[in-house]
TrEMBL record:
Protein's name according to its UniProt entry: Ubiquitin carboxyl-terminal hydrolase
InterPro entries, sorted: Papain-like_cys_pep_sf (IPR038765), Peptidase_C12_UCH (IPR001578), Peptidase_C12_UCH_sf (IPR036959), UCH_C (IPR041507)
GO BP, one annotated term: ubiquitin-dependent protein catabolic process
Bias (Basic and acidic residues) ranges: 301-320
Active site feature: C92, H167
Source organism per UniProt: Ephemerocybe angulata
Amino acid sequence: MSDEEQSGWQLTESDPGVFTELLKTLGVPLIVDDLYSLDSDSLANLQPLHALIFLFKWVASGDSESGPGSSSGTYDPDFQGFFAHQVVNNACATLAVLNALGNIPSLPTGPQLGELVSFSTGMDPQTRGLVITSADWLREAHNTLSPPSAISLEGLNLPRKSEDAYHFVVYLPVMGALYELDGLKPHAVRHSAYSEDGEGWLKVAREVIEARINTYPMGSLEFSLLALRDDPLPTLQSKIQEAQQAGNRELEHELLSTLTNENAKRERWAFENSLRKHNHVGLVHALLMVMAKSGKLSEAEAKAKEAMKTRIEQRKARGEDMDEDD
């Protein structure tokens, strides 16, 4: 039996559209965006920014303190914020989101999430994790945008191959310090206090995350970073009205361009999420058969490999840019 069948929680992609749809289901007025650089300008463009969600290749216990992906900081067993342990497989994405949301003051939420957070108040992290992952509605929301299991190899007695495991954690400011909330760790991890001046907590977060990224070999693609931020649409729409009333056409056009890009991004997310809800294996198989019979499959395969090579090189270049900013 697979991990998904045992836990009931399916794997989640590190995709801003997936996380944003989950936040919408939770009744939270926030979105998630990709973050390709930790430089000041990139972070400033996403303000107000509440947390950073970090996906990394998980390393087993023997090397976790010093090997790739290892983290700094010190355990805080007296952490007074919201922190839940991961007690089932594949739930780390939603758990990272909840560990972030539970520590954002005065955040509006939907009734189900509000009741869940209220009910778990005062619980220890292990019990809170059990309560969260026992919520059927939350598991269903988590699984809605997980790619369907296309082919099952269970029962065929095939040799099992070890696969790389990836894990989500969250970095955010709590009570004047940067904290790392990792559901697989016994306690919240406190990194250091931060100054409210300048970039505030993001300056400390940059140092901590870049140090963690630098534990991987140069050019590695074994991590990604997402930003949890306010939904910019209401603010953009308000600023456009103000620019129109002031007769500032230049600013109005600039804001309208930004709004158009935001709306196009939402449309792309909606389309991609709709694809995630369907199993396309039958269609893909039929198309491959037709292309093979017509002699076009080899050419298409070569083009696909070249396109993938280009995408990998682009991602490596973005990773190197982050290293250079350190």
